[in-house]
From TrEMBL:
It comes from Pseudidiomarina fusca. This is HEAT repeat domain-containing protein. It holds the Pfam family HEAT_2. SMART domains: EZ_HEAT (SM00567). Keywords: Signal. InterPro entries: ARM-like, ARM-type_fold, PBS_lyase_HEAT. The lineage of its organism: Bacteria, Pseudomonadati, Pseudomonadota, Gammaproteobacteria, Alteromonadales. Residues 1-19 form the signal peptide.
Length: 597
């Protein structure tokens, strides 16, 4: 019986073994290497061979390291580059293999100028030898490169002392030598490393006048990310920036990470110089400091008077973030803003985070009366949580970025044609020749002459702009261009033959109502989805142009649906504009807001 069972098992095993042999094209490392074809491949190639050969070489693991390492000096590019790729995949690498891996990298550098993929192996290997070599390569390359940066970030905290030693270079160090350090630190700070000795060493570097200025600045920027005990580091950073105001930008990075109150002082001082998106970023940074920045609340509140609507919304959210209760009455009045739903939304967020119960009646009014469902829904959630004494929702939730209309299509609305006497479109995508003009960039002759690129552009035919749409308003014409992320403008053409720019933004369309026009504008690009409706009114000389309503998103298309009303089909769904009554959502449209109570 035993013999019979043995025969059966042997009979089963033999075919399986034979099948494996058949599937594998080679049984030794050397035999597999011999099957790698000699061919020329591009410098960016990972090398080419039969997939079964590559799989078998990977299966050998560390046993294939030495034979593959010899290929790194092979004159054939395919053999060399495939060997490098396979070596980088070895998982069971040991620190004792360092010399072999270094030789592979040095061969790659000698033959191709690049160390290749093998740097990754050093990241998994770790150890002083690997780190020292990687840091020396970082300096030699003058840039991090994906693989060196990956390897040092993989090693993590143990790499920091070696990086600091290299940063302390006093001789023959140039900005180019240090270009890669910023890349490494950008990766390392995401690891949330706390290393007080290294933090103090960085401070010492930053104070050392013998160290290259670029490295001193980098030390100031990065010290906050690894500080374990913030008090002594924060105090020294504040002392340094007070003594050397020119260092404020670099010190600020660390002070923000440490959530220092002094960071708020530095940031609020920058608000006066900032504008537009830059000012919004400053306000965002102040908000991230939380209640630490509460003492600058009055200075932040001042910017609720800003002309820019986005700034006002950013200020409102910031005041809520930092817990500045004194701004609550002013924020409450923002709930009555009929033009900008985003300012109302931001005020709701701020009052929500401030837990300002006196605003409940106004919040509930917004929840039942606002034209925009997204704002109504958030107001309802805010009122509910305030009444129940529940904590506010997550501060960083930006629901208005992702909202989309559903169960609603703009296609249901008829298109009312506009007479060509008052509206002309560029139907053939050739531009409206009769309204062509020199690009506004070329209007400032001194600036154009000072910039070589601008000089060349303004001298070319490309600088002649032909708009996409033109509308007759009173005795003049308004034209619009829309170049997506490259911007656009609205120009006024007067009956005396002169013209001027009256608005700088992407123009989707212009609608004439006698001596007044309404322009649908905006941009949807990457994470942006912004739309605005402007009113242009003919005055004694030129036009007065002002924003009158924020749209739910950038307009894709728009058209008149009757003599008075315009359907605006935005990326966040359609809305209807009536000059007499404002914006409204078409009947039956819903909006997905993702606001949870």
């Amino acid at each position: 019986m035993k013999r019979a069972l043995f025969v059966i098992l042997f009979g089963l095993a033999a075919p399986m073994s034979h099948a494996l042999d058949q599937a594998s094209p080679c049984t030794t490392v050397e035999a597999c290497i011999a099957l790698i074809p000699e061919k020329d491949v591009p410098s960016y190639s990972n090398g080419e061979a039969d997939e079964a050969v590559k799989a078998q070489l990977r299966a050998f693991g560390r046993d294939a390291l030495e034979p593959l390492a010899k290929l790194s000096a092979h004159p054939n590019s395919n053999k060399r580059q495939l060997a490098d790729t396979l070596i980088a995949d070895i998982k069971d690498i040991r620190q004792s293999d360092f010399e072999l891996v270094r030789q592979v990298i040095q061969n790659n550098v000698k033959l191709d100028g690049s160390g290749g993929w093998a740097y990754r192996l050093l990241g998994r290997m770790g150890g002083d030898q690997a780190v020292e070599f990687l840091v020396s390569e970082l300096v030699r390359e003058g840039k991090g490169g994906n693989q060196i940066v990956f390897a040092l970030a993989k090693i993590g905290a143990p790499a920091i002392p070696h990086l600091l030693n290299a940063m302390a270079c006093k001789n023959n160090c140039t900005p180019e030598s240090y270009a890669g350090f910023q890349e490494v630190f950008d990766e390392l700070h995401q690891l949330e490393i706390s290393d007080q000795p290294s933090a103090l060493a960085l401070l010492a570097l930053a104070k050392n006048n013998d160290i290259h200025p670029d490295m001193r600045k980098l030390a100031l920027e990065w010290v906050g990310y690894i500080t374990a005990e913030s008090a002594p580091v924060e105090a020294e950073l504040i002392r340094m920036v007070k003594a050397n105001p020119e260092l404020s930008e670099h010190v600020l990075t660390s002070l923000k990470v440490l959530k220092s109150p002094y960071a708020a002082d530095l940031l609020v001082a920058k608000l006066a110089q900032g504008e537009g998106l830059h000012r919004e970023w400053i306000l965002r940074d102040i908000g991230h400091l939380g209640h630490t920045a509460k003492h600058v609340g009055a200075e932040v509140e001042h910017y609720l008077n800003a002309e820019d609507w986005n700034t006002r919304a950013a200020v409102a959210r910031t005041l809520g973030f930092i817990g500045y209760e004194k701004a609550a009455p002013r924020l409450q009045t923002m709930l009555l803003n009929e033009q900008d739903w985003l300012q109302v939304h931001a005020a709701l967020q701020a009052l929500h985070w401030l837990q300002h119960r006196p605003a409940l009646d106004d919040i509930e009014y917004v929840a039942t009366s606002h034209w925009y469902a997204l704002v109504r829904d958030f107001a309802a959630v805010t009122a509910q949580r305030l009444r129940a004494d529940q904590p506010p929702l997550e501060k960083d939730a930006q629901h208005y970025y992702s909202h989309r209309a559903r169960n609603c299509s703009a296609d249901q609305f008829a298109i009312m044609a506009e007479p060509e006497q008052i509206k002309i479109y560029d139907r053939e995508f050739n531009g409206l020749n009769q309204f062509s003009y020199k690009h506004p960039w070329c209007a400032d002759k001194e600036a154009a002459e000072a910039d070589e690129y601008l000089t060349e552009f303004c001298a070319s035919l490309e600088s002649m702009v032909q708009p996409n749409v033109a509308a007759k308003v009173g005795d003049s014409w308004l034209t619009g261009t829309n170049n997506g992320e490259w911007g656009g403008e609205m120009m006024a053409f007067y009956k005396d033959g002169s013209h001027e720019q009256v608005l700088w933004t992407n123009i989707e369309d212009i609608y004439s109502y006698g001596s007044t026009a309404y322009a649908t504008t905006g941009l949807a690009h990457l994470g942006m989805n912004n739309g605005m409706l402007y009113r242009a009114t003919e005055i004694a000389k030129g036009f007065a142009v002002e924003p009158i309503y924020r749209l739910p998103g950038a307009p894709m298309t728009s058209w008149k649906i009757n003599p008075q009303e315009i359907l605006i089909n935005t990326y966040s769904g359609p809305v209807i504009f009536n000059p007499a009554t404002g914006l409204r959502t078409p009947d039956g449209c819903e909006v997905r807001t993702n606001v949870e109570s």
